[in-house]
Automatic annotation (TrEMBL):
This is Sodium:proton antiporter. It comes from the Bacteria. One of its GO terms (cellular component) is plasma membrane. Residues 160-460 form the Na+/H+ antiporter NhaC-like C-terminal domain. It is found in: Cell membrane. InterPro entries: Na/H_Antiport_NhaC-like_C (IPR018461). Keywords: Cell membrane, Membrane, Transmembrane, Transmembrane helix.
Length: 465
């Protein structure tokens, strides 16, 4: 087996990035990286390398340490499948509309920001909830739909990456754990405060929500809507349309999922939350929430077992592509560690680039990848197996490099017209898609500029430490 390949050890990851950028097919790019890595390991025996690559995929899939990762990834999809397709989520949205707590523009924008932050479990659910709930209010008050699209897009993804108690956290904790990090949860939590772009984007959106600040193309849309607007009486939602049991089912299941994680960490850690089993805790919390969602849907709406089963399967199926990305990414990470690509890259960068520049470089490379492929999750799967070994090889703070890679993925995703969250934000707000891209980009670039400066400062700090 070849384990000292020099620059050849970088090829699997680099070609995976290049192929993903050109084709936007992340799974195929990662799969190709896995096969190429094993071919390089067993050169010149091509057949042995291919067989080894395929075998490695099977080994990763059935590895007991990965079973909980697949379990809670699919379970989170099943949970939201039950809430959405079972019908309870519809009543939750109707109840929010019914309250009519948004009599003016500022409160309407703040309502959108707060809702986007509170529904932090899954970005697309958060976007659809915030967008569909806020849109009638924005139309009534004369706020542009482009402003709505920006606010929901710039709260939902950033808050999801900053909260570990959701599918995003589970996905990235799994990636971190498979890079040789003994305590992936602590590393991910430490990276939250170093995810400069997500933090800046979130608070920039809060500033815009509070002040109504508009610049660039957004200013033109705001002026156009304001000049053409004729205020109409706010439509009311009939109280009878909201099933209280369905409403409480959504609230109780989501709150339970959030609260169960620290409870389970305490139990599995025998009284010490920091010593708890994070994977078991998240999986248990999701399964309890799923049980509540199923029971509440049957009790409040009389859903049949057929409807519940269909909702579970469809929800799990919807999130299956993310589980597949994670599966192949873990296999690629295992292969690149065997190749020694992290150590080689660390040596090259240490010799050719100043250490203070590396966090900013990781951020920008991650952003470019996410912009090109339109997938923040796909970018995480590609970049974390590069960023973490680099940090380990140079004996630098792993959390900083994780934060930079995740931040770049969010920025590139925000800026990309082919991003799924960008497209869903346009749909949920009722904005023309290209208008949303044009109006959001200046805000994203402003946040990214500040984030880049932050990573340069952080790089200077670690270089001088």
């Amino acid at each position: 087996m070849n384990t000292e390949l020099g620059w050849l050890s970088l090829l699997p990851s680099l070609l995976a990035i290049l192929f993903a950028i050109i084709t936007r097919k992340v799974v195929l790019a990662l799969l190709g990286g896995v096969l190429l890595a094993h071919v390089l390991l067993f050169m010149p025996s091509l057949g042995t390398g291919v067989i080894s690559g395929v075998s490695s995929l099977g080994e990763v899939l059935i590895d007991p340490s990965n079973q909980l990762i697949w379990g809670f990834t699919l379970a989170i999809g099943a949970l939201f499948g039950v809430l959405e397709r079972g019908g309870t989520f519809r009543h939750f949205v109707a109840a929010l509309q019914q309250k009519q707590l948004v009599p003016n523009k500022r409160r309407a924008r703040m309502f959108t920001w707060i809702l986007g932050v509170l529904v932090f479990i899954e970005s697309n659910v958060s976007i659809m909830t915030s967008g569909t709930t806020s849109r009638p209010v924005y139309d009534q008050l004369g706020i542009s739909r482009q402003k709505l699209a920006y606010l929901i897009d710039s709260t939902c993804a950033p808050i999801c990456i900053l909260i570990p108690l959701n599918a995003w956290g589970a996905f990235n904790i799994g990636l971190i754990g498979n890079q040789g990090i003994n305590d992936p949860i602590s590393t991910f939590v430490a990276s939250i405060g170093l995810n400069f772009y997500a933090i800046i984007a979130l608070f920039l959106a809060l500033f815009v929500a509070w002040t109504g600040w508009a610049f660039g193309p957004m200013k033109g849309f705001e002026q156009q809507v304001s000049s053409n607007h004729v205020q109409k009486p706010m439509a009311k939602v009939n109280n009878e349309t909201v099933n209280k049991g369905a409403l409480y089912t959504v609230i109780i299941s989501l709150v339970t999922m959030v609260l169960m994680v620290p409870v389970m960490l305490y139990i599995t850690g025998e009284g010490r939350i920091v010593s708890g089993d994070g994977m078991v805790s998240v999986f248990t919390a999701i399964m309890v929430a799923l049980g509540i969602a199923i029971a509440g849907t049957v009790w409040s709406l009389g859903a049949s077992s057929k409807v519940i089963l269909s909702a579970i399967l469809r929800g799990a199926w919807k999130i299956l592509p993310l589980a597949i990305i994670l599966w192949v990414a873990i296999a690629l990470g295992d292969a690149t560690r065997t190749l020694g690509s992290g150590e080689y890259l660390a040596g090259i960068l240490n010799a050719s680039l100043p250490i203070w520049l590396l966090p900013a470089l990781i951020f920008l490379l991650s952003a470019l990848t996410a912009f090109a492929i339109g997938s923040s999750w796909g970018t995480f799967a590609i970049m974390l197996p590069l960023a973490i070994p680099l940090a380990l090889g140079l004996d630098l703070p792993v959390a900083l490099f994780v934060g930079a890679a995740l931040a770049g993925g969010i920025f590139g995703d925000h800026s990309s017209p082919i991003s799924d969250t960008t497209i869903i934000a346009s749909l949920a707000s009722g904005s023309e898609h290209i208008d949303h891209v044009r109006t959001q980009l200046p805000y994203a670039l402003l946040a990214a500029t500040l984030a880049t400066a932050g990573y340069i400062v952080a790089g200077i700090w670690i270089a001088s430490a």
